[in-house]
From TrEMBL:
Protein name as annotated: Adenylate/guanylate cyclase domain-containing protein
Domain named Guanylate cyclase: residues: 503-634
Gene Ontology BP, a term: cAMP biosynthetic process
Domain of life: Bacteria
Coiled coil: none
This protein's record includes keyword Lipid metabolism: no
Amino acid sequence: MVSLQRLFLSFLAFGFTSLFVTQSLSAQIVFTGSILDLRSEKAFGQPGQKWSFRPGDSQLLLEKPKTTNQDDLDPEYDSVESLRFANAENSLEGVARNGWISGFAIQTSWDKVKDGDGEIYFPDFRDYFEKYKGYGWYRTEVIISDEDLKSKFRSRYLTVRLGQISQADAVYWNGKFIGGTGLYLDTPPDTVLEDKSLFADKTRFYRIPVGQVDTNAPNVLAIRVFAKYPLSPGLSHDKFYISSQRYSERAEYWNDFKKIFVIVLTVILGSFYLYWQFLFRKDEHATIYFSLGSIFMAVNTLFQSQIIYSILNDGFWIKKIEYASWILLVHFLFNFVVQFAKVHKGWIRKANRIVDTLGIVAFFVLFALPNLYFLSQFFFYWSFVTVLLGLSLCYIIFLGRKVPSMGTVSVGILAMILLLLNDIVVEMQWEWYPSQTFVKDYAFAGFSVSVGLSIIRNMVESRKLVEKQKEEKMRLSRYFSPAVMETIVNDSIKLGGEERDIATLFSDIVGFTTFSEQNPPAVVLANLNTIFESLSELIFHYSATLDKFIGDAIMAFWGAPKKTDLDAYHAIACAVEMQKRMIKINEDLGVPPGTFRLRIGVNFGEAIVGNIGSVKRMDYTVIGDAVNTAARLESHGVPGKVAVSEAAYLAAGGDRYLRYEESRELTLKGKAEPVKVYFVTEVLPRSF
């Protein structure tokens, strides 16, 4: 287990080094020779692909399908009246040539791009939206040689990856529409889209038709972008490249794999902890909180994935459910850590209730927000609440540092907090921060792995505990019947003792002293163990507690820790069966009949039962006058018979269930009045 934790810590250390050092040196470069990088800024600040940007929408050129033959129509595009935009053409003519800004950094949203004098081009998004209706165009020329197709791409089937564009886009290659998200080939100029058509976090992959690629000549890639709200509008903080379709499919599979990994892992962890809760930890709530948190982590990851777009096509509701599941996830995980750390400070509990209340309010407010802008702004500021909760967990983790597995869980939580901080800073696009990539997937995966390691450790510890409990049960099974033993293991026994009605049995082997004097110790011990083994089995069969062996005597009682209405009946029935069993024991030992006989006394009455003794040495036993009376009955009894007190006789049902050969009154030591005794010979069956 220690090696697993060290391996995980080493993995985290390597991950952070790669994330914050390598990213700062390479500026998020993809380390492969299989792509054509389209970003305007590459490693070490070196300029890359040259782009131009033009605010506003394009002049429209209306064009009908070039063929009337339905067999020649592209069912996806040509069946719809296509719109040709001047900004998408290979050569710009007329007014389309004016207003382009060169050197536009596509890694930065257009409301943050500065000119050569350090002034922001479009400082006020509202002004931009009123003037340009939220539209903008990106344009670049891409040269792909035959050698590139042969050695770099190794395919003529190419795909352009444009990452996560905010908030809708349409893409043109050499004037041909090749795909769009929110915007399509028939979306008229200056159309203000509804919020459900805005997909800020969807990763764009668009295939380039084979016939549209001009080798050894400039190819024009034009992107029409619409942003309704100032939420990182345009192409920003992501990877942009051209690759073979096979390579892009692998990239899509990897993105989906990360999400599916987190979804499957969190669902498994949540289900496992629910099972764990109902199996072992019924009085502990930490596992419930983690299970619910895992479920909402899976939901949140699903609604961040590209998979969700094949299920839902409403970007607004996708973001609502994603944000709502995140709020619930954070609050359940916060409660999980508080419960897991076993923190009992009053102010933390009060703060926890306040945080829970705020989370519930935030959850319902989120669904009431009218548009994507308010939704995103609300969640952005609420993210700082997440960070504060995360930082407060550091103190809670410190308080619960002695809890088993707390170290492993805390490493995962702290790693997740740091990686989520990266996403917040990337979203804000501060120039001093080198990263341009969201890493929430790795944050979730890292936390899930840390909890998985915690589960492994808990399973190992639980296995040891189960083995220890088995050993304890084996030890207890020597003294208690299985039913009584389970009661002792599962229920708490009141320390110090309590008054109960107890049926007590004492038995003594008559003739064993003489046998001991005439035989070697080994033979004596073997015979005694054989007798005790047989009688103990019978005592356990009648659900008694075997108190102790006293020389060649046995003490057992009924009524504790589990009490029934048949305790006296079972005690007398057991005593009668013990007398019958002694006949067979003599035969099994190969001694003459009557060599070993039993004197048995049974009494019923109030006694003190519980853990009696000292702190260092306690016995679960019974004491009191009723117990002493049973011992006196045994000593005044008749060998081969069962002496039953009147109290036990009546409690067992009297002559309705018991048959006796005689009754007499005996004067017992410590008793002022004679005690009526029945010598029971038979016990009739009784329905339970």
